Amino acid sequence: MRRRPARAVWPFLLALVTACGADPPAPAEPTATVRLASYDFQENQILVEVYAEAVRRSGVPVSVQHGIGTREVVAPALQQGVVDVVVDYLGTALVFARPSFRDRPETPEEMRAVLRRVLGGRGVTVLEPSRAEDKNGFAVTTAFAAEHGVGRLSDLAPLAPRLTFGGPPECPDRPLCLPGLEEVYGLRFGEVRSLATRAETVEALLSGQIDVGLLETTDARLGVAPVMLLVDDLGLQPRENVVPLVRVEVVERWGNRLTDALDETSARLTTGDLVRLNRAVELEGLTPEEAAEQWWG
């Protein structure tokens, strides 16, 4: 995974300290550039480059900070004014912002409305979601599926105690990952392994180190490697439309030049585009910046 060197380490350390319960830092002063930040996985870095290029073309100065960390770091950084724009995923952003929200809205419009109300009190606005979606998916090899006759997540219930699951380090704590699999599907795996990247997950599946692994639904290796996603037949995963989250103060400063650029990008972006962008980076060797430039043409 290619990453740019961190260019603002101290502010993000402050955000991390705040997320862990320390006193918050003083509000950041307005900057001369709009600061976009990505999560610590490659697809999000690609998306940030796509949106950053749109903002850049609108004449608004931009800086990009990649691989800042997990949601626990990036969310408070946005709310405290350490960064200005985060490209997020609608359902996961809502679950994180309101973890105790039981009657989850189902449509992107309803989800955006709830998320906007929640984050509005934290100085963040939610722009128009795109048609592009990337959900958590759970994969097995095609050989495993044929041997055990599985095609749905619910088919794993009698097998799970004998299976090894592999996923990112945060998976045991995320409601849409292992806790959700246990609560919704009753899946209690015999062993759980922490895997740093999705490429490592695919390698572990193919080598038999794990039986089930987390792969996003837009992963570049799907259709290339002999792995398949199991159907989420009980609807654990929410809608996950790509959506920009922006500090209200930054919207007030830059106005329509900023929001139009972000909204126009969302209006153009599709799930197919997201798959192709991932393939360009993961399989063809482009950097996220190069893939974004190629997409814009």
TrEMBL record:
UniProt KW Signal keyword: yes
Pfam family name, one: OpuAC
Domain ABC-type glycine betaine transport system substrate-binding stretches: 32-296
SUPFAM superfamilies in the cross-refs: Periplasmic binding protein-like II
Keyword terms of this UniProt record: Signal
Residues in the signal sequence: 1-28
InterPro entries named among the record's database cross-references: ABC_Gly_betaine_transp_sub-bd (IPR007210)
Name of this chain's protein: Glycine betaine ABC transporter substrate-binding protein
